C-alpha cells in the first residue's frame, strides 16, 4: 500500500472518508496519525522509525502482527497504543438490531464504556449519526483535537465507533461532527452518556455502570403486590434540589448519599409508600426543573455520581419505599450541545416545525415514527428500570404526544395519514414502551400524565389501550381545587364539582395528583388557595386532604404541601421548614401522616381505588348544606363511612349507615392534634334501626365546621 500525499493531507485535516482503511497496520505497512509529533517509531520486537509523509502523518514498513507507538515532540517522548490498530467492538448482530430499531439494550452498545479490548484498557465510544461525514471523539485526553480520534462507520447502521486506549472512568468528552457538507457542528454531548459535568459545563463524562451492589432483592420480589391496583399507593413528589439544603455549606442541595438518609427517613415517617422524583436526568437549565433533559441516560451530577444515585434508590427499597422517575420522552431542549440537528440534520426531531417544535415550551419533539429514535427512547425506559432498579416511570406530557394539534391552531399542524389529529407514531411508541417495560422488569408501574379524555390509557395494549398502569386524574384535581377555592357561601351552587368525578372515576386506574404544577407560576400555595380567615384556611386544607385520601384513586402530594407552606414553591431555595415551629403547620403534617397510616392500614380506603365495588354514595345531593357522604369498602373488611361538611357551619346531621351497632370515629380533621377546635362525637356513634336514604340504619352525628370525619364499625 502506497500512501499518497493527498491522502495523508486528508488524514491530518480530518477529511478522509474512511481513516481506518488507511491508518494502522495494513499489508505490512503502518500509517500513524500523530498531530504535532516531530518523530514517531513503531515498537515491537524491534523498533522502526516511521517516515513523515506530511506533518503529523507517519508511515513505515512493519513485519510483526502487533505494535505500539513512541512519539517525540521537542524534548518530550511518550509511548501509547495506536487507536487505529484495534478491531471493531460492535458486531454484526448489534449493527443489525440498531439499524432495525429493535435493540432494547441499546445502552450496552452505544455511549462510552470503560473496557479491556484486545488485552488493553481503554474506553469504547459509539454514537448514532447516520448523516455525518465525519465523527470524532474529543476530550482532555486528546487536547480536544478532532483529528486524533476519528471514529469508524459501522456498516449502514449509521453508528460510528472507536476504542481509545489508555483513558479511564471520569474522562471528559464530546463528539465533534462534520455534517454532510463538511461543516463542523457545535460539539455535542453523548446522547447515551452515563454522566455529565456540573452545569453550566457541558461535557459528557465516562462513567461505569453497576458500581453499586444492590441489596433490595426482597423488595423487588414483592413490589408487584405493593404496586397493583388494590394496593395502597401514596406518593410524595420531590424536587431533590429544593427539598432541603445545607446552609452550613453554602446552601447547597443534598447529595444522593444525604438524601438516602434524610429524605428516605422522612418519607417513611410520613407514611408515604413511594417517592416520585421530578426529572433527575441530566439537564442544563435549573429553571426547567429537569423537564428539558439533555442526558436521558445520566442521573444529574448535581447530587452525586451514578452509583450514589443507585445507593439512594437502594436505601429507599430497604425501607420499603418505591421510587418513581418523572420521565420526559415528550420533548427536548434546543441547546446546541444536545440532540438538536445532531448530525447536521433533523435526526431526533421532525424537520417540519409543525411536527417538531413545541410552541408552549420552545422545545423540540421527537420523531417517534423513526425506528432508531423510538428505540432510543424505549431502551432509555428499560435502562432506568433495569440499571437503577426504579419501580416506575411517570411519563410527562402524554397529551402533547398523543395529538398532533396539541396547543396548535388550525393550519399549524400536520394531520396523520388518515387526516386525523392523533399522533399514530407516538401512540405506537407508548404502547411498545409500556409492553416492553412491564414485560422486562417484573412488578414495575408506569403512570401517564394525560389531561384529555383519550380512551384506554390504562387498558392493556393487547386490548387496544396505551398500556399504562395508572393515569393522573387531572379532572378530579381541577374540579376539587376549584371547589375548595370558592367561598363556602357559594359552594352549594357548585356541588357537582365534587360529585362529578364519581361518574368516571373507574374509567381508568387513577392517581389523584396535587403536584408541583399546582403551586407555581402564580397559582399560589395550597394553603393560599383556601378561602376565609386564617383559621378557616387551615380547616379547609385539612378537609381537602382528608377528602383526597378518602376519595377513590391513589394519592400524590408535592413536597411542602404536607405542612401547608404559605409561599409558592421555588426551585432556588429549600422548603419553609421553619413553619413546623407553628403548631398549625405541625398539626397539618400530623394529619397527612395519619391519613397515610389510615389509608395503608384500612383495606376499605385503598382496595377499591380502581374497583367500582369499593365506593358508593350515601348522600351526594345535599348541596344546600354542602355535605357529602360516601362509603368505602373492601371484601372481607369493615366499611368506612366518610362525611364531609364543607361550610363553616357546625351541624347536627343524620347520616345513613350500612349496618347497625357502634361505629368508631377513626378520623376527625377538627381534632386538636391537627390544629382544629377538637369538636366531634367523643370517639363513637351508635347506629339506630332507623332507615335513612338508601341505608336501613342511621345515626345523628356532630359535624364540625369545614371538616371531614370518618367512621368504621367498632
TrEMBL record:
The catalysed reaction is: Transfers a segment of a (1->4)-alpha-D-glucan chain to a primary hydroxy group in a similar glucan chain
Q: Which residues form the Glycosyl hydrolase family 13 catalytic domain?
A: 241-584
Short name of any one Pfam family annotated for the protein: Alpha-amylase
**EC assignment:** 2.4.1.18
> Is Glycosyltransferase set as a keyword in this record?
yes
Quote the catalytic residue positions: 396 (nucleophile), 449 (proton donor)
Its annotated pathway reads: Glycan biosynthesis; glycogen biosynthesis
* Protein keywords: Carbohydrate metabolism, Glycogen biosynthesis, Glycogen metabolism, Glycosyltransferase, Transferase
Superkingdom assignment: Bacteria
* Subunit text: Monomer.
Q: Which family does the similarity line name?
A: Belongs to the glycosyl hydrolase 13 family. GlgB subfamily.
- Describe the function of this protein: Catalyzes the formation of the alpha-1,6-glucosidic linkages in glycogen by scission of a 1,4-alpha-linked oligosaccharide from growing alpha-1,4-glucan chains and the subsequent attachment of the oligosaccharide to the alpha-1,6 position.
**What is this protein's record name?**
1,4-alpha-glucan branching enzyme GlgB
Which gene is the coding source of this polypeptide chain?
A: glgB
Amino acid at each position: 500500500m502506497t500512501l499518497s500525499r493527498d491522502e495523508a493531507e486528508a488524514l491530518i485535516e480530518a477529511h478522509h472518508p474512511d481513516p481506518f482503511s488507511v491508518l494502522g497496520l495494513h499489508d505490512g505497512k503502518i500509517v500513524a496519525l500523530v498531530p504535532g509529533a516531530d518523530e514517531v517509531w513503531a515498537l515491537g520486537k524491534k523498533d522502526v522509525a516511521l517516515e513523515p509523509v506530511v506533518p503529523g502523518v507517519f508511515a513505515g514498513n512493519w513485519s510483526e502482527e502487533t505494535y505500539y507507538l513512541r512519539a517525540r515532540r521537542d524534548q518530550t517522548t511518550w509511548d501509547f497504543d495506536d487507536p487505529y490498530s484495534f478491531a471493531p467492538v460492535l458486531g454484526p448482530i448489534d449493527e443489525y438490531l440498531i439499524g432495525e430499531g429493535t435493540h432494547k439494550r441499546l445502552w450496552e452498545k452505544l455511549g462510552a464504556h470503560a473496557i479491556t479490548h484486545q488485552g488493553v484498557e481503554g474506553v469504547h465510544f459509539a454514537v448514532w449519526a447516520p448523516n455525518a461525514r465525519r465523527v470524532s471523539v474529543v476530550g482532555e485526553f486528546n487536547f480536544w483535537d478532532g483529528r486524533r480520534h476519528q471514529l469508524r462507520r459501522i456498516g449502514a447502521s449509521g453508528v460510528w465507533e472507536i476504542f481509545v486506549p489508555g483513558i479511564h472512568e471520569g474522562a471528559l468528552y464530546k463528539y465533534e461532527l462534520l455534517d454532510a457538507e463538511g461543516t463542523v457542528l457545535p460539539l455535542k454531548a453523548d446522547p447515551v452518556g452515563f454522566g455529565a459535568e456540573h452545569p453550566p459545563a457541558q461535557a459528557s463524562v465516562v462513567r461505569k455502570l453497576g458500581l453499586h451492589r444492590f441489596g433490595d432483592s426482597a423488595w423487588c420480589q414483592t413490589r408487584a403486590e405493593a404496586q397493583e391496583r388494590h394496593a395502597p399507593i401514596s406518593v410524595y413528589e420531590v424536587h431533590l434540589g429544593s427539598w432541603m439544603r445545607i446552609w452550613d455549606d453554602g446552601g447547597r442541595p443534598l447529595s444522593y448519599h444525604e438524601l438516602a438518609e434524610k429524605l428516605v427517613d422522612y418519607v417513611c415517617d410520613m407514611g408515604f409508600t413511594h417517592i416520585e422524583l421530578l426529572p433527575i436526568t441530566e439537564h442544563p437549565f435549573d429553571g426547567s426543573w429537569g423537564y428539558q433533559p439533555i442526558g436521558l441516560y445520566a442521573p444529574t451530577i448535581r447530587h452525586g455520581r451514578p452509583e450514589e444515585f443507585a445507593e439512594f434508590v437502594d436505601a429507599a427499597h430497604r425501607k420499603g419505599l418505591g421510587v418513581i422517575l418523572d420521565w420526559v420522552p415528550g420533548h427536548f431542549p434546543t441547546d446546541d450541545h444536545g440532540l438538536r440537528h445532531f448530525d447536521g440534520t433533523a435526526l431526533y426531531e421532525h424537520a417540519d416545525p409543525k411536527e417538531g417544535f413545541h410552541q408552549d415550551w420552545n422545545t423540540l419533539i421527537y420523531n417517534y415514527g423513526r425506528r432508531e429514535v423510538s428505540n432510543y427512547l424505549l431502551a432509555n425506559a428499560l435502562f432506568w428500570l433495569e440499571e437503577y432498579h426504579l419501580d416506575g416511570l411517570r411519563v410527562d406530557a402524554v397529551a402533547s404526544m398523543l395529538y398532533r394539534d396539541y396547543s396548535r391552531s388550525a393550519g399549524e399542524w400536520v394531520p396523520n395519514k388518515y387526516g386525523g389529529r392523533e399522533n399514530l407514531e407516538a401512540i405506537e411508541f407508548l404502547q411498545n414502551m409500556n409492553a416492553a417495560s412491564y414485560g422486562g422488569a417484573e412488578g414495575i408501574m408506569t403512570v401517564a400524565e394525560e389531561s384529555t379524555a383519550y380512551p384506554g390509557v390504562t387498558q392493556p395494549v393487547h386490548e387496544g389501550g396505551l398500556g399504562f398502569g395508572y393515569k393522573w386524574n387531572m379532572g378530579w384535581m381541577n374540579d376539587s381545587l376549584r371547589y375548595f377555592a370558592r367561598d363556602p357561601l357559594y359552594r352549594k351552587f357548585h356541588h357537582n364539582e365534587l360529585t362529578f368525578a364519581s361518574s368516571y372515576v373507574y374509567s381508568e386506574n387513577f392517581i389523584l395528583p396535587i403536584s408541583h404544577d399546582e403551586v407555581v407560576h402564580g397559582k399560589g400555595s395550597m394553603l393560599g388557595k383556601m378561602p376565609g380567615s386564617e383559621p378557616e384556611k387551615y380547616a379547609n386544607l385539612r378537609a381537602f386532604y382528608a377528602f383526597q385520601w378518602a376519595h377513590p384513586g391513589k394519592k400524590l402530594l408535592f413536597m411542602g404541601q404536607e405542612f401547608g407552606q404559605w409561599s409558592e414553591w421555588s426551585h432556588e431555595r429549600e422548603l419553609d421548614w421553619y413553619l413546623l415551629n407553628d403548631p398549625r403547620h405541625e398539626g397539618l403534617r400530623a394529619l397527612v401522616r395519619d391519613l397515610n397510616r389510615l389509608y395503608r392500614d384500612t383495606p376499605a380506603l385503598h382496595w377499591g381505588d380502581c374497583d367500582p365495588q369499593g365506593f358508593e354514595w350515601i348522600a351526594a345531593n345535599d348541596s344546600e348544606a354542602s355535605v357529602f357522604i360516601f362509603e368505602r369498602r373492601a371484601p372481607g373488611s369493615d366499611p368506612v363511612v366518610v362525611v364531609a361538611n364543607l361550610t363553616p357551619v357546625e351541624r347536627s346531621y343524620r347520616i345513613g349507615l350500612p349496618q347497625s351497632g357502634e361505629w368508631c370515629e377513626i378520623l376527625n380533621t377538627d381534632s386538636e392534634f391537627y390544629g382544629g377546635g377538637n369538636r366531634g362525637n367523643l370517639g363513637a356513634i351508635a347506629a339506630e334501626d332507623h332507615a335513612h336514604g338508601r341505608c336501613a340504619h342511621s345515626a345523628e352525628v356532630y359535624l364540625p365546621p369545614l371538616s371531614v370525619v370518618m367512621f368504621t364499625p367498632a
